[in-house]
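Lecture notes, unit on protein representations.

Consider one protein chain, 511 amino acids long.
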Amino acid sequence: MESLKEKMVNHPLLDSKELSPPPVEAGEQVSSELEDILSDASLSCWRRFRKAVLVELRTLYILAAPAVIVYLLNNIISMSTQIFCGHLGNLELAATSLGNNGVQLLAYGIMLGMGSAVETLAGQAYGAHRYEMLGIYMQRSTILLVLSGLPLMVIYLFSKPILMLLGESKSLASAAALFIYGLIPQIFAYAANFPIQKFLQAQSIVNPSAYISAAALVLHVFLTWLALFVLGWGLLGAGLVLSFSWWIIVAGQFIYILFSDKCKLTWTGFDWMAFSGLWDFFKLSSASAVMLCLETWYFQILVLIAGLLPHPELVLDSISICVTIVGWVYMVAVGFNAAASVRVSNELGAGHPKSAAFSVVVVTVSCLIISVIFAVVSLALRHQLSYIFTGGKAVSDAVSDLTPLMAVSIILNGVQPVLSGVAVGCGWQAFVAYINVGCYYMVGIPVGAVLGFVFHFGAKGIWLGMLGGTVLQTIILLWVTIRTDWKKEVQNAQRRLQKWEDSKEQSRLNN
């Protein structure tokens, strides 16, 4: 397994001679403080541990809390559009649900995944104090994501025949396509937003994104109401307003970058260097996209398979409610995912192997504790959860029956995304993508289908199989993380940075 990991991460971005870690500069006080504490032999093990935990927790929660808020607010923006459209009629609600949870989710997963390459490279560059590189990585990622958005735009344009080919009725496909046409500008807002977001996160700048997302949500609610109930723009207007709101988030974050003193070293203006090394960058970006999309689609496939069981309406209602609850808790884990990626990449870039390893332990244990609390609360409220979404004792009983499995999923989703964040921080995206394919799609889904349909366990059988895939994936990621040679990961980070320096020097000589 270890040799496979090395093979997956040995792409050309790593090809260079081994370098020693750069000297720590005054600006990285938390990093140097944590490394000094962990290396201080004059302190007892317990005092070292206690002081290091306090330092790391302070840094972690400053990063994670705003990141959780950002992802939740961005999710609510799309959800609010569905709520408004639901008041237009059942067809409009179904159309926006199909557009948001189907087609839009495809673009979101691909763009967020590809943007994660910036987390790896920019985070390590920032830790190494090679600040000018962050702006180059952001621009390079934006170029790649815009180009990737072009084939996605074709899918959006032909969404009506695609949906009809998948079995949707003509009326629903036509209504959904109208909404999806309005989401085309959103594709390119994603292409700009995620590199900018990761650029800021790599520098531990997360509060501005939270403030901007909150302001965008308020404006989005007003504009959606205006477009639907005053101007009567219908589904196309709803899609266009949603796209416009995402562009507001992009504009707000970029204006912050232009005028904030915190970004004056990392943003030095547009540079032609962004167009160099695109192929190597694309390989890392595409691996990130595959890794994230395979995780995002996993539970969506659970819902699709459940629709094939007997009494599909009751099954879909109960599973959809449980998946929605898991999804909300997952947003918390995604915030810790971002924090883990930033912390690990920063420490590796700064040449701090002990701090990187310690950050992994603290963030994993922290998120595990939070997820266990959510799981216990879900079990305590198992008979009441469904009434948040709908009435009826039959649905309540079905949700209550699935709640123990949902609680286990919540706990696993408290650990697995964090380990994925560690993988992003280290640049293991391609390796994790292979793990996801094997655990999710060669174990989880087939086992779930057999338990659900052959052994007649129904929804519980499908969920058990999917849960088995997640357990296997989490065990493998834990095993790989525990066995990681963090000094070697520091050297890998330096190779990536040297690769960029060599390209930059060559560009200067050519000019």
